[in-house]
Amino acid sequence: MQTEVLSDLFPLLSTANPQTLEWLFSIAVEHEYPAERAVLMEDAWGNAVYFIVSGWVKVRRTTGDESVAIAILGRGDFFGEMAVLDESPRSTDVIALSTVKLLSVSRERFIQILFKDPQLHHRMLQLMVRRLRQINLRLQMRLAPPAVKLAHTLVSLGESYGQDFDHGKEILKISFKDLADVTEITVDETTKIMEKLDEKGWLKIDPVKNVINIINFKQLANLAAKI
């Protein structure tokens, strides 16, 4: 993978200098996992940061026998940085939702990169603050109607990781259970809302391609804005 591709694919690396990208490319390790495979397990010590080259993963937290998805990440995003930076065990699992290709950079090398490249260090802080803002927004939305909350989840996934087609976005066919968990509504509510959106022609689920086509993205975004 060329350094220009790294810069274009990963927002975290968009401000990194060419020397940083060259070094990162030379030390990164490639991985590929099939769907449903655990990429990282809870309580494992953070020894690397992972970059998603292609595919989708979910971040989940397990309590007793119950597992709850707390985030869904796709192409161009990264994970594992929290455990690396605070030198503590991971508090979540990461599970592949589709075939996923990753690049990993060891903890020691990643810390070296951050110290060597102030622009990358600053960009890292920006993206971590953005994630905190997203968490705050989810807290603000807890009293919003379920349809608004689910629309916000779908729009966020489409904007962050979706593939463009005509006037819409194509995202992975994520299970209703995972969509419900991330949105913090029930599976029954998720099922009814998705059926309604399908009836209205705002989205279509394609089981053959295993994708959700968000056809009327603008209308869905308008619904998501009604917080």
TrEMBL record:
GO cellular component terms attached to this protein's record: cytosol
Pfam families hit by this protein: cNMP_binding (PF00027), HTH_Crp_2 (PF13545)
Keyword Transcription regulation on entry: yes
Domain annotation Cyclic nucleotide-binding: ranges: 12-131
Domain of life: Bacteria
Alphabetically ordered keywords of this record: DNA-binding, Transcription, Transcription regulation
Keyword match Translocase: no
SUPFAM superfamilies: cAMP-binding domain-like (SSF51206), Winged helix' DNA-binding domain (SSF46785)
Molecular-function GO terms, alphabetical: DNA binding; DNA-binding transcription factor activity
InterPro entries: cNMP-bd_dom, cNMP-bd_dom_sf, Env_Response_Regulators, HTH_CRP, RmlC-like_jellyroll, WH-like_DNA-bd_sf, WH_DNA-bd_sf
Protein name: Transcriptional regulator
Species of the source: Richelia sinica FACHB-800
